[in-house]
Structures are given as structure tokens and as C-alpha cells.
Amino acid sequence: MRYSREGQNLLASIPGHGTFTVTAEAVSMIDVFGGVLHCYQGCGGCRKQGLYFSRTEPKKLLRCLLNGPEQAGGDTDDDWGLPTGEEILISVSHELAAKLDGAVLDFGQYNKIQRFAWLTMPAVKGPACTCRRSIGPSAGKRSPCLDDQRIGLTDL
């Protein structure tokens, strides 16, 4: 099945960890960035864990199964394509997978920077960064802000 209807969100299913929504805007930008997006967490940011995005898939990852809104809850089909005819591949790190059930991945203008951001992460308890790029307890006053560093897509 191909992703042929513009303006629709996709439902991404992480094997063994639940699902998250990928907004139509995020799908469009994944297309612009070559059809591949890897989501992971790492050190840094104003909170204990920074949330990062990369075009490079690492060796250990969980590939998401993608479904359109009309197929949510039905059989999964991981052969989704983009309007350009290319396939879309979204993967997440093992560390981040457990935190993404019910999350929403978006792309837009956040704090005057165009970038991917997790709009919601209901599975994460405790404080989240207002820029939606860090999670967990505060990392201290001297911790760098991902916004200040202007970190966008990174290569692992």
C-alpha cells in the first residue's frame, strides 16, 4: 500500500511497545529528508535526556509499522510510501520505544526553529522541556539547551 492521500496522519506501531501518531506535516518533511527518520534519546538538553532525530539508522533499532488512519487497529502494513513514490521508514531506539505509546510526532515552527518535535508523550512521567526536546528531571542550571545549540537532524 502506498501513502497517496496528502494531509493525513499515519499511525506508527512499535513492535512490543505501543503506537504513536506521525502528523501529515512530519510525513511531508520525512519525504524531504529522504524518507528515513530515526528517533532516539541521548545525553544533553535542559533535562536528563535529550530527544534527537537522525537520517541515519543505527545497527540496533526498532522499525515502526505504518498504517493510515483508516487502518488503525487493523492489519499492519509496513510497505508505506510517500507521495513521491519512495518508501517511508521510521525507526526508534530501544531506550525511547517504551516512552512513545500515545505520543505525537510533528514537524513545524517551534521556538522560531523549524524542526521535528514530540508534541505529546503521555508515557513520560514528570517534567518535560517546554521546547519538547528533552525529558526527565532538570539536569541543572549549567546544562546546555538544545534550542540554543540549534540541534536539528544529526548523523549518528
Provide a short characterization of the protein structure.
This protein is mainly beta. It has helices at residues 24-32, 94-97, 146-149, and strands at 10-14, 18-22, 36-42, 47-54, 62-63, 65-67, 89-92, 104-110, 113-120, 134-138, 153-154.
Description:
The structure is a single chain. The chain is mostly beta strands. It has one domain: Sandwich (Hypothetical Protein Aq_1857, Chain: A). The chain has 3 helices and 11 strands; from the N terminus they run ββαβββββαβββαβ. The protein has helices spanning 24-32, 94-97, 146-149; strands at 10-14, 18-22, 36-42, 47-54, 62-63, 65-67, 89-92, 104-110, 113-120, 134-138, 153-154. Strands 3, 4, 5, 7, 10 and 11 form a 6-stranded mixed sheet that branches. A hairpin with a 2-residue loop joins strand 8 and strand 9. The chain is globular. 32% of the residues are buried. Residues 1-5 and 70-80 have low confidence and may be disordered.
CATH superfamily: HesB-like domain
Structural class: mainly beta
Q: Helical stretch count?
A: 3
Largest sheet: 6 strands, mixed
CATH architecture term:
Sandwich
In terms of per-residue confidence, which ranges show pLDDT below 50 for 5 or more consecutive residues? 1-5, 70-80
How much strand content do the residues show? 35-45%
Q: State the share of residues found in helices, binned by percent.
A: 10-25%
Mean pLDDT: 81
Order of helices and strands: EEHEEEEEHEEEHE
The radius of gyration computed from the alpha-carbon positions, rounded to a whole number of angstroms, is 15 Å
Total beta strand runs: 11
Specify the CATH class.
Mainly Beta
- Return the domain count: 1
